[in-house]
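Collaborator request, handled under Task 6.
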Amino acid sequence: MRKNIFISGIVLTSAVLLGACSSNDSMSGMDHSSSSVPAPAPSPQAAAGHNADDVTFAQQMVPHHSQALDMAKLVPSRSTNPKVLDLASRIAKAQDPEIQQMQTWLTTWGAGMSGMPGMTHEPMPGMMSDPDLKKLEGTKGAEFDKMWLDMMIKHHQGAVDMAGTELSKGSNADAKVLAQKIIDGQQAEITEMQDLLTRS
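Structure tokens returned to the collaborator:
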């Protein structure tokens, strides 16, 4: 009798355990991992996996990109060149999401934009001065197109240089991926703008 009770207890316990496993499996959806340990947070290294160079890259590239957006916004009211108009639109569409991405990193890393180096005394590579931008704003037509292309080429070259520094000194994988994307995209646009200048 005791033997039957003992066996029944084992069967009942096994059934409960199997039921629990089955319940867990149904809750995990498409997760077929062999480990029963809960999955880590989506980006476990977002806060720890960065260094000071990653922070500097994001802190400087955000206003650098922002100036490119400001320059792109000048184009529709000052240019009639469809190729320049198209390029300005593509620059805005590419760089606006990148700004948001870098701002998210800075928040995750506990680093803001305050106290950012280089805004007034040490300009970042390729950044236009206020007088340069005022001069650009005062032009239209072919004169605007040439000045805008010249300035944007220098601006892009500055971004490429900054991204190159991130590749060599940064440690965050996502930031380095973005840096390479900036190099590839903006170098191609530099070539495109140089070609437009030779045709003008």
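The cover message to the collaborator said: "The chain is about 70% helix and 0% strand. Residues 52-199 form a domain with the Ferritin fold (CATH 1.20.1260.10). Please let us know whether this matches your experimental observations."
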